[in-house]
Write the structure tokens for this entry.
Amino acid sequence: MTDAGSLVAANDNARQREAAPNWTSKELRLTKAQADFLGSGRNSIHQRVDDRTQLILEARKMFGAWKPNGDGTYSLPLSAKGEAALSRYRNRKTRGN
């Protein structure tokens, strides 16, 4: 009888990491109003201003797909790009210090 080797399949393939998205600084740049909107969902007492901010951020792909909530409403979660932009905004260095 000859040895047929291990019965466990060899895994010679290296695991491939998912490539992290490389967004430019320009793509992740937010105004204070946009950062406020991404963080809380509101940035103005005027609904039209909030609607416009939301349209701009949606066009820039800062939100993911609409998700149903348990109470019958829907929410618009941040996309990976939106989370990266908001994190970058919150961790920015203040100028002049």
User: Anything to note?
Assistant: The mean pLDDT is 83. Residues 2 and 8 are 17 Å apart (CA to CA).
